[in-house]
Amino acid sequence: MRVLRLSTCLRPVWILIALAVGCGVMTGSAQSYANPPTWHPMTMLNVNFDTTALKLDVVDQAEKMGANVYPVLTAARDSTYDPAMPWGVLNGTAWSRRLGWDDPNRKAGNPALFILTLITNIYGSDAGIWIDCVSRSPGLEAYLAIGKFGVNAINNATNADGSVIIDPTLNAYSGIFGTAGSSTRWRWDGQMDHNTYAVALSDITVPDQLFSATYKVYVGDPQGNEILNPDGTSASTTAVWTWQGPATGFQPELKILHKIAVEWPGDFSNYVLEWAESADSTIWTRVDHTPVVMAGTSLVLVDASASHRYFRLRLAD
Ligand SMILES: [Cu+2]
User: Fold this and answer.
1) Is residue 41 a contact partner of residue 99, using CB atoms and an 8 Å limit?
2) Average pLDDT over the chain, rounded to whole?
3) SS3 180
4) What three-state secondary structure class fits 111?
5) Which among 49, 73, 245, 311 would be 20 to 30 A from 211, CA to CA?
6) The predicted structure's pLDDT at residue 270
7) How many distinct structural domains can be found in the chain?
8) Quick one: which of 292, 285, 40 has its CA closest to 145?
9) How far apart are CA 311 and CA 64, in angstroms?
């Protein structure tokens, strides 16, 4: 390895280090990631409202999938999804979008029979259906997912190259049901909603591990406070959803990496590390890793697969 150091004392201060790394050819860093998971195969657990008894009911998954048959979580190792995308939260988890909330009268197309119409007719125009996750297995997380790909209500919203178009207004893959500090209560919009349920691989300790969530489904006002029936009874019902972990458990893989460590004195934290293809390049790119400060130095590990690469420190603006 040949190391060349250049520096000037002009501001902003540049410190150049040229790294000659082996003799390999430049390898592209572009990585292909999987599209976000779709809602297929799907099993909808229908929410019904009995207008005579004034009672909600959710069809149990056992009725749809068979007794003791559960949606199996799909493992996604760390580099499955682009970490910059909303669904990147699923890296390192086993997930499922199979189970969904649905209104059985939605497809018939008669708005008078839609469940939210039935609810507002009885409880007032502000009333809605809320789902409160009252308990869940340790490690079971839930993320808002809308439409086929989870990030767009338009199910065929893809670019020419097949990549999915994200609707940023939906805040898709934000935590719900208590995940990531969210409220345990979620207001259902009466549509077919296949949210994403996921468990970190490190939380899966035995094969076929079962994870469950218990939901209270109730009529509520816009703030999520329950609205009782005129006689003081509750229209609410309890639903338990269960998922099954993968058939094999997971253990961490130990790897030895071919990386180069770049460091500078830790008290110069106001400098940023940049790289370029050549020393006289006009295009310098910030190294997108936060330095680790240890033993008085700022340390960044960079990929060693490039045949050569130039680094400099620049005083941050
Ligand atoms: Cu569905």
Assistant:
1) no
2) 89
3) helix
4) helix
5) 49
6) 85
7) 2
8) 40
9) 59
**Better pLDDT: 171 or 260:** 171
Q: Quote the CA–CA distance of 196 and 214 in Å, as a whole number.
A: 16
pLDDT at residue 11 in the model: 43
Which residues contact residue 117 at a Cβ distance below 8 angstroms, ignoring those fewer than 6 apart? 111
Which residues are registered as beta bridge partners of 304? none
Q: Sheet containing 237-244: which strands, arranged edge to edge?
A: 185-188, 128-136, 210-220, 237-244
Residue 7 has pLDDT above 80, yes or no: no
pTM of the predicted protein model? 0.74
Structure-token match 């790909």, residue found = 149
**Does one domain contain both 232 and 298?**
no
Domain span at residue 284 reads 3-30+257-315
249 falls within a domain: no
Tokens at 176, concatenated: 């719900």
Do 239 and 272 fall within a single domain?
no
CA 234 to centroid of ligand 1, rounded, Å: 28
Distance 44 CA to ligand 1 centre (A): 5
- Position 285 pLDDT exceeds 80: yes
Q: Where are the beta strands (DSSP E) in the chain?
A: 3-7, 15-20, 43-50, 55-58, 74-76, 93-96, 99-102, 128-136, 140-143, 185-188, 196-200, 210-220, 237-244, 259-265, 271-276, 285-286, 292-294, 297-303, 308-315
Of the three residues 212, 244, 276, the one that is the final residue of a domain is 244
Comparing 239 with 25, the larger pLDDT belongs to 239
The answer on 308 and 204 residing in a single domain is no
Query: Residue 22's pLDDT is what?
Result: 41
Q: How far is the CA of 97 from the centre of ligand 1 (A)?
A: 9
Instruction: Report CA(102)–ligand 1 centroid distance (Å).
Output: 7
Q: Provide mean pLDDT across the span 154-182.
A: 96
Ligand 1 center from residue 203 Cα (angstroms): 27
Ligand 1 centre distance from Cα of residue 183 (Å): 24
- What's the CA-to-centroid distance between 293 and ligand 1, angstroms? 48
